[in-house]
Specification:
Layout (H helix, E strand, L loop, with lengths): L2 H25 L15 E2 L9 E4 L4 E6 L16 E6 L8 E2 L1 E3 L9 E8 L5 E7 L6 E8 L4 E8 L7 E6 L5 E5 L6 H9 L5 E7 L2 E9 L2 E6 L5 E6 L4 E7 L5 E8 L3 E7 L6 E6 L2 H5 L9 E7 L7 E8 L7 E7 L2 E6 L5 E4 L2
Parallel strand pairs: 6-10
Antiparallel strand pairs: 1-25, 2-3, 3-4, 4-5, 7-8, 8-9, 9-10, 11-12, 12-13, 13-14, 15-16, 16-17, 17-18, 19-20, 20-21, 21-22, 23-24, 24-25
This protein binds 2-acetamido-2-deoxy-beta-D-glucopyranose (3 copies).
């Protein structure tokens, strides 16, 4: 090959790479800045210092908070401390979370909790589903919540070849759930390659004993997953797609696409207001600052509410935004009677009042 041809080819490849990098920088908000939006009466939840990745509030105001996630490529302020599940009673003005004791033989030393979900059966038994990453693998742990003793009784570890990079879970029965795989690959460099090449290989899977199957695919990075209050729809957040996909849940548990809502934000987890069905999410103002943690240039936090998500014109409002001086790397936001809880990947947890 002639020297000129080689130079031309290298030039074309570099130009394509440059083009893709530029696109990726846009996709992941590498230049994102925060316009602050404040809320009155915010305070930290005491004792939560190493993340509050997911928050699930029961109808009676008890909130479960997962803390201490270790995740490839993500900073952890306490890499040697096992993960915990905190319980917070939102009816109690003291707002004091307590770390729940776990019994039933789960290996606590490798507990790395990620997304959580609850299922309440006819007898009011509360089951807690927790995405876990022991040794960077993916399992779903099912617990029974013994409320009188404040204990989580471990019932079962779910493993399956389709659980490979699980992010979040939404329970639909005492042993059945939908979950999202945020990447196809499990190692950090391969994930970055997956992102760079725009592979859209992330998916949503339905699990029940005896019936496990992919029910939706084609996401850049499927993250938060939640269910509408009438239990007819499943919402899936795609971080790098910056969208929420709405699916109808069919009788055989397959998902039928309804529509995709473009949001233009790096949304992480989803929760649904139990009263009016509004969808709440924590989002990342700047993807680079989350992936590449720098204490001198902190990742910020954003809480976004989407009203009337099923209508042609959903109303999208930034309810809270901070540059990291108060809260870093928000993932989720849950509401209960005018109170807002905001969780983060590896930082603290914030409580605010909405009105
Ligand atoms: C997101 O929030 C929903 C509802 O609060 C919860 O079921 C889910 O587990 C959360 N997932 C993550 C990854 O934070
Ligand atoms: C589920 O039901 C839908 C609609 O009835 C059908 O098209 C689909 O093939 C079914 N899927 C499975 C796996 O049974
Ligand atoms: C972050 O926001 C706080 C409060 O809004 C402000 O005082 C501070 O200067 C900001 N920091 C940076 C680095 O922009």
């Amino acid at each position: 090959m002639g020297a000129l041809l080689k130079i031309t080819l290298i030039g074309i490849i570099l130009a394509l790479l440059g083009q893709r990098l530029k696109q990726l920088a846009y996709q992941a908000n590498f230049w994102g800045e925060v316009k602050p939006v404040e809320l009155p009466n915010c305070q930290y939840l005491k004792g939560i210092e190493y993340g509050s990745e997911d928050i699930e509030i029961l109808p009676n105001g008890l909130a479960f908070i997962s803390s201490g996630l270790k995740y490839p490529g993500m900073v952890s302020f306490a890499p040697d401390i096992p993960g915990e599940i905190f319980l917070l009673d939102l009816n109690d003005e003291e707002l004091l979370p307590s770390s729940l004791r776990i019994t039933g033989g789960l290996d606590i030393s490798t507990f790395s909790p990620h997304g959580i979900s609850t299922y309440i059966d006819k007898d009011d038994t509360v089951y807690l589903f927790v995405v876990n990453h022991p040794h960077h693998k993916s399992t779903v742990e099912i617990f029974k919540f013994a409320e009188e003793e404040n204990i989580l009784v471990h019932l079962k570890t779910i493993k399956h070849k389709l659980l490979y990079s699980v992010n979040d879970v939404v329970a639909v029965g005492p042993e059945s759930f939908y979950f999202s795989n945020d990447y196809y690959f499990t190692s950090f460099p391969m994930r970055m390659m997956e992102l760079f090449l725009d592979l859209m290989w992330a998916n949503v899977v339905y699990y029940s004993p005896g019936d496990v199957r992919e029910v939706a695919s084609g996401f850049y990075s499927a993250n938060g997953i939640a269910m509408s209050n009438d239990k007819k729809y499943i919402y899936v957040a795609d971080v790098f797609g910056k969208t929420i996909s709405i699916f109808e849940k069919l009788a055989n548990r397959s998902l039928s696409p309804v529509k995709v809502v473009q949001l233009g934000i790096l949304l992480d987890n989803l929760s649904v207001d139990p009263v009016n069905g509004d969808v709440w999410t924590g989002s990342h103002p700047n993807g680079m600052k989350v992936l590449h943690y720098n204490p001198e240039d902190l990742p910020g936090s954003e809480v976004v509410r989407i009203q009337n998500i099923h209508s042609d014109n959903p109303i999208v409002t930034t309810v809270y935004a901070n540059n990291g001086s108060v809260l870093q790397a928000s993932t989720c936001a849950s509401v209960y009677e005018g109170k807002l809880l905001v969780g983060t990947i590896f930082h603290k947890a914030l409580y605010c009042e909405l009105d």
